[in-house]
Amino acid sequence: MSIFYRLAADFVVIAHMAYVLFVIVGFLLTLVGCILHWRWIRNPWFRGIHLMMILIVVFEAWLGITCPLTTWEHQLRQLAGGETYQGAFVANLVHDWLFFDAQPWVFTLLYSLFSGGVLLTFLLAPPRWPTRASRA
Question: How far is CA 89 from CA 11, 14, 86, 95, in A?
């Protein structure tokens, strides 16, 4: 059963990395899309989900809440009977890239500045909501 928990923990850390990459790459693509006038970056679903995802991270940081994905991964690794940061090669690589040591205020500041950048893109390239004519 410990292999199940270890694989589940590896899956959680990879899902966590996907979350982070969506936030970072989504922001970069939005910036490039502003410059190159890509229409798809104005999709309200993409932009709303992107904004919501970074705001969740910021609010967790402001409130001192540990990310639930981090907590879940730690619990699964403990259930597997292993060390907290043990896993498959890819999971270890992802984990080492995702987590680094710094004071909590540094992360809070970085997340807050990043979310400010995401909000700024709403001014530079606001989402385009469908009009009634395009829905019919």
Answer: 12, 12, 9, 10
